[in-house]
Amino acid sequence: MRIVFMGTGDIGLPTLRWLLTVPTFEVAALITQPDRPVGRGLQLTPPKIKTEGLAYGLRVMQPMRLRDPECIAEIAELKPDVIVVMAYGQLLPKTLLEVPRLACLNLHASLLPRWRGASPIQAAIAAGDERTGISVMYMAEGLDTGDVLLMREVVIAPTETGGTLHDRLAEEAPGALAVALAWLEQGTAPRIPQPSEGVTHAGKLTREDGEVDFSIGRVALERLIRAYNPWPGASTRLPKANGAKRLKLHDSIVVDTPVLAPGVAEPSAEGLLIGTGDGAVLVTDLQTEGKKRLSGVEWLRGQHLAPGTKLGR
After folding, report:
1. Domains 2-201 and 207-310 share a fold
2. Which CATH superfamily is domain 207-310 in?
3. What pLDDT does residue 205 have?
């Protein structure tokens, strides 16, 4: 089977690696996004999947505009049986969806139709979902609207972070794809339309989305801190007396007392208590912008934060 793999995010790496181990598969090309400026120096940096693909000797394509007829023609010349997409970062035009002989499949990190869109992992944790998974679907022109071929369910642990769930779903994807490709070859792959009920969307996240609204309540706040760890990172601002710097909240625990006003911080023997209006969370792992990550106790030693300090803008 001749396959073109399209992906930009790290979540697709285990799937690409697996495809390269199967003797009956030929990965004709890896298509990924162009290199982007990264960091304070804005150094042009390739996606990690590109670096790995080149190390395997793959043909790597990085089109600026996927819809250009020249790009579609170049992919069509590869004569793929299947195009496999995972976290590529762009919608595929109809002309490209019609290129492969068998199907254009997308591996999506949710149980569709719940959490269509760019950030399903963070959305599931923040919403308190008990389960998520990998959906293998036939791609359509809409955003994650295609018929589903199969789904693999994963239980979300009570302490799950965006990072740990990302890694678990990345490892689950190759097994789901293996079954899907076998069914396609056998001509037995089902097409299950997504129900119109239960559709939710998770948009693309930016660093600014991590700015915390402490009035959402202690349970919602603790989930959000886990969901946004490591990206985009739940954060707030220290007051001017403490440098007015961004403060990243890496880990927290819901506590019953004290009931503090939203955003009001109290030092404690175990970390930093931050009020939510219906109680508080104990932040046990913090990082001031430009500094290293510290436990809540270590961080407080260097801050001299006054009781009743108001965090945020």
Report:
1. no
2. Formyl transferase, C-terminal domain (3.10.25.10)
3. 96
**pLDDT tens readout for residues 10-22:** 999 999 999 999 9
Q: How far is CA 110 from the centre of its chain?
A: 10
Residues 6+ apart with CB under 8 A from 55: none
Distances (CA, A) of 273 to 11, 52, 265, 270: 34, 43, 6, 9
Q: Report which of 250, 244, 232, 237 is spatially closest to residue 286, judged by C-alpha positions.
A: 250
With a cut of 70, list the residues of the chain below it in pLDDT.
none
**What residue type is 82 in one-letter code?**
V
205 φψ region: left (φ > 0), alpha (ψ -120 to 50), beta (else): beta
- 64 touches 35 (CB < 8 A): no
Give the CATH architecture of domain 2-201. Answer: 3-Layer(aba) Sandwich (3.40)
Domain locations along the chain: 2-201, 207-310
pTM here? 0.96
Do 53 and 16 touch, CB atoms closer than 8 A? yes
Tell me the pLDDT tens digit for each residue of 33-82. 999 988 777 889 999 999 999 999 999 999 999 999 999 999 999 999 99
